[in-house]
Amino acid sequence: MAISSDLLSVLACPKCKGEVTLTEEASGLYCATCSLVYPVEDDIPVMLIEEASEYKSE
To answer: What is the pTM of this model?
Structure first.
């Protein structure tokens, strides 16, 4: 089960309140403003700032 588009539409970055998008591998939610990725564990987004990691572009 993946994160639904309805859920994505209401989620926001807890740090800046900006939009988050699902990463390509669906392992996290990315905030472009803060360059943070919030993990998704067992299809549940963990929207805690202290659990986020910095986005690393390849």
So the answer is: 0.89
- Give the type of residue at 46: V
Q: What is the pLDDT of residues 3-23, one digit of tens each?
A: 888 999 999 999 999 999 999
Contacts of 26 (CB under 8 A, 6+ apart): 2, 3, 40
43 contacts 54 by C-beta, under 8 angstroms: no
Which residue reads 């910095």 in tokens?
54
CB of 28 within 8 A of CB of 51? no
Choosing among 3.90.550.10, 2.20.25.10, 3.40.50.10610, 3.20.20.70, the CATH entry for 5-54 is 2.20.25.10
